[in-house]
User: Fold these one by one.
Assistant:
Number 1:
Amino acid sequence: MDVSRETLTPIFGDLTDQAIEYSQILASTAVERGLIGPREVDRIWDRHIFNSLPLITLMPNSATVIDIGSGAGLPGIVLGLARPDLQITLLEPLERRANFLLEAITQLGLINLQVVRGRAEEHKPRYQIVTARAVAPLPKLLQISWRLIAPGGKLLALKGESAESELAAAPISRFNPSKAEVILASYPLLPEQPPVRVISIEKAG
């Protein structure tokens, strides 16, 4: 999928060149290291980068964010490129993936992101927003991430078409959230991009 600079500049602003460079990193280094499947190269923009953007419509200004199981930096690096006001921690337990993330944000010069190698269960700080994409089924995701959410903060999990049934089947009440819902989120500057399903679970303040 070819994407014009005219499409990208309103989204990424001064970081448009870095967004393009990141797409190239995903299509080359990430594939070579097994973080992205070779069949995904033609879908880097629509399936991976653009798919991550709707999350930022659900985040307050200058929020602290942790992207657990960040892998190739999806959605964490995309969020940092589109929203430089966010302070984002990319949490990744596997060494080769953590090394990739560190190399990528260093190459892109992104000062609002940091990489931490570790497991969510062992991580101490709390954040306003916890993001996850293809990390774990919702019951396990809640178990490993809930303690990372600051009071009044949210878990935002990118899910597929099973989001509603996954939310309905999960033992949400155990965590006593103030709100739990599936949001069909869209990014306004990409009206042709289909909305994504986000499970949003808010911790009581």
Number 2:
Amino acid sequence: MDGIHDVGGKQGYGAIDVDEPDLYELGKAFNHDWEAREWGISRCARTPDINIDWWRHCRELIAPIDYLSRPYFDTWAQTDFATYVDGGFFTLEEVCSGYSNLGSNPLDQAPPKTMKKADAIIADRQNTCRFDAEINQAPLFSIGDTVITNQHGFSGHTRLPQYARNRVGKVHALNGAHVFPDLSAQGKKTHQHLYTIVFETGALWADCVNKNDKVFLDLWETYLSINGLSK
């Protein structure tokens, strides 16, 4: 992810609006009703062919002008429709027309029984996926080890942000083995040890004011080495 989509730690995008009203205090979860519908669509988009890492990779293919100018959930919708078309669930023609080519309108069918909100929440939790697993390999690094992150990124999807590359930190915690996102985005499911790495902000941004503040990142084993060489 070496494109405009990785903006963490970058300057020049203007001040962050810290005065936006707290939606939860207002008893709302979304600013607009269409955002709630998009959230529901996105929840349905998780299939074996559309895992979270592939979805993120597709979102990172959005043109820069689109990505920076469209509302957050609008880019979600753009990604969902792209992955659905790519997965063969419907065609681009159907998206543009708003109608299915199947010859029948699902809205004409009998509506499903309405599920109570509490039951829907329970059902949603039961459908969650696990991304951790037991593996035979022992962790290469231990708590307290000083490590350095990779200098270069990956041409596809990666969870190693640009601002944390070729930076020195320490292993703060071992989190077991989890699906490695770089390969998962390519449809290859493997597991690697996942570590919480703590960095001093001065090691990430030389011109920051509070250089002794801490930043904690969860990073996979492939992203790390000791003195530039694997332990």
Number 3:
Amino acid sequence: MKTLLPLVLLLVAACATEGPAMLPDEVSFAPAPYVGVKHPQWARNATIYQINTRQFTPEGTFRAAEAELPRVRALGVDIVWLMPIHPIGEKKRKGTLGSPYAVRDYLTVNPEFGALDDFQSFVDRAHELGMYVIIDWVANHSAWDNPLITQHPEWYTRDGNGEITHTTGTDWTDIADLDYSQPGLRRYMTEALEYWVRDVGIDGYRCDVAGYVPMDFWNTVRRRLDAIKPVFMLAEWETRDMHAAAFDATYAWSWNSTLHQVTMGEADAGAIRGWYYGHENIWPADAWRMTFVSNHDKNSWEGTQFEQFGDALEAAIVLSVVGEGMPLLYNGQEAGNEKRLEFFERDTIEWRDHPIGGLYRKLFALLHENTALWHGSAGAPMVHVANSKAHAVYSFTRSNDSNAVFAAFNFSAVSQQVGFDLHLASERYRDYFSGETMHLLRGSDLQMAPWSFRVLVR
């Protein structure tokens, strides 16, 4: 203890000097640049379309899905995401056909959907049309009859009795949990991920329950995949660390639930402002969030887009595209699908022309052409615009040197005469949906019907 006394006295003397203690010249308080993943250039204004292969066509095959790709491209889709393409386990299977998330073999394709050549043809055709393909990857668990369970039983998680178990805290009894403390498992899974990018030509992955797999594994995977070619990685998770070195985008689950609460009268427009405030101030600057009104989980287990959002559906869809975020369109939404698709059985989507399809097509065109709406640092941040009906109306601008957008949403069941505290540039603005032109000045008023929206563009 005595040897520390001179140091203690020196520190006390320093604190007693008049004025703040001096720091070395090289110390800087300038904000450090965010070092995250390097997003592929082709994704900066991309949209995502999810295909549930089993339900997408009457045939439920890759070849049948390939025939629909021109229609999907015509919607303005850039990235096609296919739910797991691999063979499905039979042991402990749920339902007649089982869950595609119970993978029996990571290196082959589900014969229900076709052969590897059929999948390769699908990928090639998507590329010809200017689209990119990502596939679902289920790294956290496998089917009970995946050969790995007998070849490498040490790669699996054990319960208190020493038995291989499904993922703790879930009802996923049709799968066996994988143990990422095992170097051999990490090596096998990494090489499998590389195979589909290098040899088949896919462009990335949507990673199932990504947060259940160690972050350092994903960081390594991203580095190795990018060494093959630039990839796009989407995490089914919602934490900031996913963006540090592994994932371009994460699920905005909380965005979806916030909009649902507002729709159900459990919250008002202030909750939406709060969500975006958190996004801007808590999440990394170039972290892309996937915004959606439906996906396979929401549709099958919680309700159709109509059940989830009712009269606010179109407003929610518009916000998912013009607000910050990367928009997702789940197959069947554009056809106004009114049923919860079966998850373990065949349940083909009933295709038809529907206004929802036209809405997405128009919105995706706006996203592509208006640089203010591009993702992350490629676009412009949302700037909140105060208005006279803050409990009901959410309004914001996004603008850069080339483009500007003003958007307002009446998230209430009554009409609102609302004034806005804004002064935009003197150029005329055009209502993107009606074609009406106008100047927006401080104090400008708009009459807004229940659950309506206005999107004005420069």
